[in-house]
Amino acid sequence: MFIKQGKIFMKQKTAIILGATGLTGSLLAKRLIADESYTSIKLFSRKASGISSPKVEEFLGNILQLEEFKKDFTADEVYCCVGTTSAKTKDREVYRAIDFGIPFKAATLAKENKIPAFMVMSSMGANAQSKIFYSRTKGEMEQAVLDQEIPNTYILRPSLILGDRNEKRFGESFGAVVLKLTSSLLVGRLKKYRAIKADHIAAAMIKLAKSLPDMKILESDRIQELA
User: Fold this and answer.
1) What's 156's domain CATH number?
2) Average pLDDT per run of 10 along the chain, which is 227 residues long?
3) Within-domain flag for 173
4) What pLDDT, on the 0 to 100 scale, is given for residue 170?
């Protein structure tokens, strides 16, 4: 926001989304399109998102080679919603290239292009010292992103994510039912294990970009509070 000749003007911003073809990323894109603070939204992905808006510009290609997009990777904020699952991507090298490689390269480009805000989705239980490959990969990704020292970096660790997906994941569907039934029992320190709606994650990411709090890592219960 700035003032000119006694009038208040809102800064018109550009946002980058990685993962707009996924559940949370697509909901985030819809929110940014509806938000008057944003005049340009850049989507980087390997396939078209199907999202239509004068604000949206899509950059299609191999985002495992994200550095090839460097000249177009300019914005005020980056939202990284990329991720896969062990069931969908069984090859651990490919899995790591996606869940570690893409967020890390995005953060590297953000630093090089002087983008001041970076939001990335991680996962509950992320821990670089974990013996569990999934949790360790997420934890190592978080540290690699933080090492870039982008001024406003926020890592979100949601619990099980709820929402209408194009693909069916039996394990997640079953887990969602269980968490819904037991949600009222998860209180105090256990609140972070409650399932969370994808749209609430999207809302929290935008709020982080606008409020720029001091916290760097947000567990699922804090994400829910922000939303």
Assistant:
1) 3.40.50.720
2) 51 94 96 97 96 97 96 98 88 95 98 98 96 96 98 96 68 52 59 87 97 94 94
3) no
4) 47
How far does CA 35 lie from the centroid of its chain? 17
Residue type, 152: N
Question: Residue 193: its pLDDT value, please?
Answer: 75
Residues in CB range of 197: below 8 A, 6 or more apart: 161, 162, 163, 227
Residue 177: the pLDDT is 54
Range of the domain at 105: 2-167+197-226
Look at residue 176 and tell me if it is in a domain: no
pLDDT of residue 166: 59
Give dist(CA 148, CA 113) in Å, integer: 12
